[in-house]
Structures are given as C-alpha cells and as structure tokens.
C-alpha cells in the first residue's frame, strides 16, 4: 500500500470550495471521494473532474444532515477501501445575512446547526474509529472568520454561531484525539467567490489552499488550531 496516496472524503463536493478541494487533492495524486447530497449534481461534478487528466475521483451520495445517508456512504467506503485517511467537512448552508440575533427565526438556526455543526460531528464520529485503528487521520473543518469570537460582530447569527460551534468541535476532537495520529483543525478559507460567497475577494483556487494544506499535514503538524493560509488566526 502506498501510504502517501491518501483516501480523502470531501462533503459538499459538487460545487464551490468543495469541488475545488476535490480537484486539488486529486491533482496531488490522492484518491478523492467527492460526496454530495444530490445524486445528479454529484455525478456531474465527479464526471467533470474525471475528464481532467490523471485524476482519481469516486462519487458517493451523502447528505451530511442525515445519519442514514452518512452510514450508507461509510459502508461503501469501508467496503471499497477499508479505510479513510482525510475527512474534509466542507458542506454548509445558510449565510443568513437577512436576520439579526434579536429577530432570529429558530427554524433557520436549527437547519444551520443541523448541517454546519452536527453534520461534521456525525461524520467525524462515524469515521474516527477506523482512523484510530490505522493511527492516521486528518480532519479539516471548513470554518469562517465570522465564527471567530475574537472578531464576532453583528449579523448572520445562525451561520456565525454554527461556525463558532464548529470551532469548538475542532478543539474537543483534537483534545480527545491527541496522540492517536489524527490531526483536527479548523480552516478559514477567506472570502471566496462561490455561490455562497458571491463575488468574493479571492478565487476558489486560492480559497482551497489552506484546506489542502490542513488535509496533507505531516505527522508532526498542528492539531486543534484555527488557520488562514496555514497561519494561526484568533478563535
Ligand atoms: P456553496 O457554494 O454554497 O457550496 C456549499 C456546498 O455544500 C454545496 O455543494 C451544497 O450542496 C453542499 N451542502 C449543503 N448542505 C448539504 C448537506 N446537507 N449535505 C451535503 N452537502 C450539502 O459554499 P462554498 O462557498 O463553497 O462554501 C464551502 C465551505 O466554505 C462552507 O463550509 C462555508 O461555510 C465555508 N466558507 C465559505 C466562504 C466563502 O466566502 N465562500 C467563506 C468562509 C467559509 P447543494 O449543491 O446540494 O446545495
């Protein structure tokens, strides 16, 4: 087994940062499992990447807000590869700029937490035992500067608080997994031009660099950190 060729799963891989992360990791020679909640969108995205030369992409459907869907994807991955090395928790929803914390619709909060926090939590919980067994894992939680308590301002309450909670999940996981070979970090991709980010400040190819960095950290790399472009940022 070539240990440098990693098995990598990316959630929400059908567009935006997730899609480009799949592209970059596959270009580095890793086996990439692009997952998406929508079967058609996922198949099209994987086909698009496969058409690029020398790229190894597998597609499995996975809705991060649905435990059965996570269980199905897990079974398929374990049956095919027997392991998972890299988990990129990228899928997220609801940049709720239209509401404030005072007039919050709790249904929106519920949905945001269900996908942006519980999604990564459920998937991590599912895959950590196999990572532990192999004494290797990289878990990358795609977070945001708006989740930083240090820089916390008004607006987008459901989304921001879901990312703060995701950062807390990073710290908890990293602490519990210390010494197991599994490194867990939160990454801020910056303001990136995607459907969610709108015109953005940086192209998606730039935005994914920190995510790819955290996905491919050496064994003595950091864990339990929050990074932008490979440099620590305030929680
Ligand atoms: P995007 O263009 O809106 O893409 C979001 C992806 O998540 C889509 O593939 C979407 O699938 C998927 N998704 C949503 N709910 C899902 C679910 N339940 N199960 C599986 N997949 C699901 O967003 P993006 O800009 O690429 O953002 C990617 C990550 O970066 C997110 O975590 C986001 O919070 C973070 N981020 C983005 C920016 C930015 O400026 N863009 C800044 C900071 C952080 P569908 O196509 O089916 O909807």
Give me the secondary-structure topology.
Elements: E1 7-10, H1 16-27, E2 31-36, H2 39-50, E3 57-61, H3 67-81, E4 86-89, H4 106-116, H5 118-134, E5 137-142, H6 157-176, E6 182-187, H7 204-207, H8 209-215, E7 226-228, E8 231-232
Bound molecules: NADP nicotinamide-adenine-dinucleotide phosphate (NAP).
The site of NADP nicotinamide-adenine-dinucleotide phosphate has 29 residues, from helix 1.
Structure description:
This protein has a single domain (about 5-230), classed as Rossmann fold (3-Layer(aba) Sandwich), CATH 3.40.50.720. It is of the alpha/beta class. The model has no long low-confidence stretch (mean pLDDT about 95). Strands 3-2-1-4-5-6-7-8 form an 8-stranded mixed beta sheet, with helices on both faces. Helix 3 (about 65-80) runs parallel beside helix 5. It is built from 8 helices and 8 strands; from the N terminus they run E-H-E-H-E-H-E-H-H-E-H-E-H-H-E-E. Bound molecules: NADP nicotinamide-adenine-dinucleotide phosphate.
> What compounds are bound to the protein?
NADP nicotinamide-adenine-dinucleotide phosphate
Considering DSSP H and I runs of 4 or more, what fraction of the residues is helical?
40-55%
Task: Give the integer mean of the pLDDT values.
Answer: 96
Count of β-strands: 8
Q: Work out the helix count.
A: 8
